[in-house]
Design a protein that fits this description.
single chain, 3-stranded antiparallel beta sheet, alpha+beta, 1 helix
Amino acid sequence: MKIADRYHRFVRWSEEDQLYIGYCPDLYFGGVCHGEKEEAVYSELCGHIREEIEHRQTREDALPEPAVRVTRG
């Protein structure tokens, strides 16, 4: 499994902003990117996650342990 695949990511619609917002709670506080097309936001989010991991590894910073899990209600 790739390191990036360990981190939960999701995109949801914001009524307030009238845009889709991408999130990765284990790496970022709040929304990471936004846009009008859900698929484009998800793709951009995946790119940000890969870049963040690469950046932290280059600096030899520890990556946070993934803690966010999908739950069923």
